[in-house]
Amino acid sequence: MAQTQPTPPEHDVEGAKTSASEKTLLVLEAALRHSRFTDVVEATGLAKATTHRVLATLVDRGFIVVTSDGLYQPGPQILSLAGQALQRLDISAIAQPFVGELVDRVHCTAHVGVANGDEIVYLVRMDSDKPYQMPSRVGHAIPMHSSGIGKVVLAARGDEEIQRFVARSGLLRRTERTITQLSDLQAELARVRERGYAFDLEENVPGIVCVAAPVYDHTGTVTYGVSISTLAVECSPEQLEAHAPAVVETAGLISTALGHTP
């Protein structure tokens, strides 16, 4: 009597053994990103039979639903869990370790801010080892048009929305360097989009400069930004721009932690 050969362990695309729990996660992630069964199979690297079996379980549990066309979509269970997770999201706690690493790298005060109406409100402030402190505080609100974080938020908006913002805010002058004309703001925001970061060159507070980068949430929306600030007498525009890659990198890490996929 012939002996039944044991079923060989299934391997993923890298050739490593894949556990049952890993298979489930692979299929769930693939089904949330792809609607066609063949695409789900290709994304997981698993056998069709295995993928179909796991999908059936996910459908039974409400994590995935199947449309009348046979396409896979997120189910009520995954949507409910996602909503609960978003309600518990604390960007301040998420951003803190990344901001701390940024401060250690550039030795400047770092901030994370969020758009609140037509202003930016600081959620995180972390000081450097410099013998002075910036005149900012958590909860403090600053105008969008004269701040680095405000500019990266505005740069993600369309022209009509920017025009409405200007009509509401009036582009009040904060210093001699503040942008106070719509055409000048539009030109500045075009430069921000091209560079991927924004400057505040003594536009909000005399003697203080900053560079900021946008933070994207899980929907790809820019509501937050991260910046570093320092004294203009200590940091030339060229030196400030040299810090921009570190700020952009930090913003990207926070965006990823918030669920953004470039």
UniProtKB/TrEMBL annotation:
Q: Report the residue ranges that make up the HTH iclR-type domain in this protein.
A: 18-76
Ranges for domain IclR-ED come to 77-260
In residue numbers, the region (Disordered) covers: 1-20
Which key words tag this protein in UniProt?
DNA-binding, Transcription, Transcription regulation
Top-level taxonomic group? Bacteria
Instruction: Please verify whether the record's keywords include Transcription regulation.
Output: yes
| A Pfam short name | IclR_C
Name listed for the protein in its UniProt record: IclR family transcriptional regulator
Q: Which organism is it from?
A: Cellulomonas xiejunii
